[in-house]
Amino acid sequence: MYDKNKGFYKLDQYVDESYMDLSTQTGEYQIGYPLNFLKDALGGMTKSELLVIGADSGVGKSEAVNNIAFHNAKEGKKVYIFSLEGDKYDLINRHRYSCFLEELARRHQGGLACSYREFLINKIPEKGKDLLQAIDEEIKNNLKTLKVYNRKEDLSLALFESHLDLINAEADLVIIDHLHYFDFHKKEYEAINEIMKRIKKIQEKYRIPMILVSHLRKKDAMRSFPDQADFHGSSNIVKQADTCVVMAHIDVGEDGDAQQIKTNTYQTGIRIVKSRTGFSQKIIGVMDYDLEARKYSDEYTLKVCGNNYIANINEPPAWAKHARSEKQTEEKNADSMY
Q: Does any domain span residue 75?
């Protein structure tokens, strides 16, 4: 397809090839988002999109990407996830626990609930344990197209590339959780530069949507909400990505902090800090994150931020279908205090 003499596409070939690629699209996004702010703001993922998600520690970035994996596997998409952080069974245990709580709620048996730490040591009421086998069967039936990296070997760049060579023909989505758990054989900055450049080349070769999770820099007193500059390790993380999303808890003041600690529900913001297809970098979607149940709320409120401020958006724009107004949020918060 290239002009061998000059190393460029001939224009008619370039136009024809791009049209053939465009015409294979179905009019629907390749990958969907279960988080409604991302669904409303971006719709979904295109077939050659590299999405990087960065978050402060403990905010729930793994929960977010796991939810994307489960959501799309339930839709029959072939999802390959390289879950590299924490215990090797953490991904499925989090989901099993969430399903367990949902089933107890459905049966009005909330008294059989336990904390996630208790769940991990099997300190579950006996009647609750009876549900686990049925839950596991449902998980296996619903997530048949989900494949999880078995972590027998540390994931090097070369090993990752060899896996992609094998799975590219069938994979609909590849998730790496996360970047800083790759096996580095050089200084972190150099290694991350190399990994990001190579991942983007691999992705362009196979045109598979990919999600990559990353650390953020340690928060300082001047930061209102993280932005592009807060990705930890290298500026190439943002440069190579098509879309960058950051997540952080919202500072709600002492009274709000006390309420969050009491209810174990934290206001968590999502901000799209880069989008090649276009979206305001100033908008934050704020959801409730239930730390114990490991779940995000379906509704969100909108805020706008700058270098040193966060302000309310009182009336959501038309695209924000799952947003509630600031007045509705205030009423909801007031009700929750009683």
A: yes
- Give the whole-angstrom CA distance, residue 61 versus residue 35: 12
Return the CATH number at 293: 3.40.50.300
Split into its structural domains, the chain has a count of: 1
Q: What is the band of 187 on the pLDDT scale with cuts at 50, 70, 90?
A: confident
Does 103 map to a domain? no
Q: What is the pLDDT of residues 264-314, one digit of tens each?
A: 778 889 999 999 988 889 999 999 888 777 788 999 999 998 877 889 998
Asked whether residue 229 is assigned to any structural domain, the reply reads yes
Phi, psi of 115 (to 5 degrees): -75, 165
pLDDT in tens, 202-211: 988 899 999 9
Residue 63 resides in a domain? yes
pTM: 0.88
Domain that holds residue 290: 30-84+149-336
Give the span between the Cα atoms of 234 and 238, in whole angstroms.
8
